[in-house]
Specification:
The structure is a single chain. The protein has 11 helices and 12 strands. It is an alpha/beta fold. The strands form 3 sheets. It has an 8-stranded mixed sheet. Strands 3-6 form a two-stranded antiparallel ribbon. Helix 5 (about 155-165) links the parallel strand 8 (about 145) and strand 9 (about 170-175). The radius of gyration is 21 Å and the shape is globular.
Length: about 325
């Protein structure tokens, strides 16, 4: 873990893998999304696999490689012998077991077939990017949303960024999976105007199967959160993934779980496979290749379960 807190919070450093401008979907108004690296979950459907590792990592797109007949600069630059010449394909391949993600090969790659995803930035460097859109924040009621990965895996950087943005008059929000120490979650809640909190399933076994971690800490944190911050607007989001949680009973359980809290709203996010190609570029398997996104009609049926907080719109006997 390389990020660290210096004497001045503006120089606190964190791993950022993307800054997305002009978003309209992760909080009110026009927003800038700062995506931080590192996540304790390994969701089977994750559309940002580059966010899972806490640190920059090498991505390789063989379709962009101009071929070893014309260029072998990366082979020379790699001191770890992690790049291999594949004669039958005419381009290189990456031995992920040997790669240290040093980035030397990406520096010399003329076609950008090799690229480093993620970089270390200071709070002040991120703020410089946010200032470019400050006029849109004020006119639309927007601001900054810190997402990931999981922002609370870099708690010092996240907190320093939120404080600094607040001092600049930028409205702030955080999106979290909830799997973090309560102290980290509590500390950021006094510096945000709203919170986006993922609840993927109430079923412990299925949650472990599809995310590789249990949901005990997540649900415990949510319960503490709504009692400790009853006036903080919270958006609970559930990614609807076929075969995992795309039935009325599953969504109805979550809706009933959050229904008692007046400061909580609920959103369903349909699964998509837009990030599947990233897995190939990172040398990772993608296990949901055969899964198709839920239809619009199916999403409307599930959404109808939310209004009353019970499956199929009728009271459950449980």
């Amino acid at each position: 873990m390389r990020y660290q807190t210096s004497e001045t919070s503006s120089e606190t450093t964190g791993c950022v893998f993307n800054i997305q401008r002009f978003s309209m979907h992760d909080g009110p108004g026009i927003r800038s999304l700062v995506f931080l690296g590192g996540c304790p979950l390994r969701c089977a459907w994750c559309c940002n696999p580059e966010s899972q590792r806490l640190g920059p990592q090498l991505a390789y797109n063989p379709n962009k490689c101009i071929g070893t007949d014309q260029c072998r600069d990366c082979l020379t630059a790699c001191k770890d012998e992690a790049l291999l010449f594949t004669s039958d394909l005419g381009h290189i391949s990456v031995n992920r077991d040997r790669c240290t993600n040093c980035g030397a090969c990406a520096v010399v790659c003329p076609s950008l077939a090799l690229q480093m995803l993620g970089k270390y930035m200071t709070v002040s460097e991120v703020l410089c990017e946010l200032q470019k859109d400050s006029c849109f924040y004020s006119r639309s009621g927007g601001g900054l949303t810190v997402s990931g990965g999981e922002p609370l895996l870099q708690p010092e950087f996240t907190l320093a960024l939120l404080k600094a943005a607040g001092e600049m008059g930028i409205e702030t929000a955080v999106e979290t999976c909830g799997h973090a120490p309560w102290e980290s979650l509590e500390s950021i809640c006094t510096h945000v105007s709203s919170l986006i909190f993922d609840i993927k399933s109430l079923d412990l076994y299925k949650h472990k199967q599809y995310t590789h971690v249990g949901n005990e800490l997540i649900l415990q944190n949510f319960s503490m959160l709504v009692h400790r911050f009853p006036n903080l607007p919270i958006i609970v989001r559930t990614p609807v993934v076929p075969g995992f949680n795309d039935d009325a009973q599953e969504i109805g359980k979550i809706a009933r779980f959050i229904r008692p809290y007046s400061n909580v709203t609920y959103e369903l996010m349909p699964y998509h496979a837009f990030g599947a190609s990233k897995y190939t570029f990172l040398g990772l398997p993608y296990d949901l290749c055969s899964v198709r996104p839920p239809t619009g009609e199916h999403m409307r049926v599930l959404s109808s379960c939310i209004a009353l907080g019970r499956p199929n719109g009728s009271e459950s006997s449980s």
